């Protein structure tokens, strides 16, 4: 059974707020949904970055550098 988009985002937020994770990757099917997740997490005060294949290499490298810190 597949959760609707809001249910998936709510689940992600719950995991972030209940688990002691410092960093994680979340893979989603589309860039549009990745943007929705990223915007929602940021709006709710959680740190988030988005990365997808059509970004310039320099942009992807900068995001990964931030992730490693």
Keywords:
single chain; 0% strand; 3 helices; mainly alpha; 69 residues
List the helices and strands and how they pair.
Layout: H1 5-18, H2 31-43, H3 57-68
Strand-pairing-aware structural class: mainly alpha
**Would you report the number of β strands?**
0
Strand percent estimate: under 5%
Mean pLDDT: 86
The end-to-end span amounts to 37 Å
Helix content bin = 55-70%
The tally of helices reads: 3
Q: Which residue ranges are poorly predicted, with pLDDT under 50 across at least 5 consecutive positions?
A: none
How do the SSEs run, as a string of H and E? HHH
Shape: globular
What quaternary form is this? single chain
Query: Mind describing the biggest β-sheet?
Result: none
User: Rg to the nearest angstrom?
Assistant: 13 Å
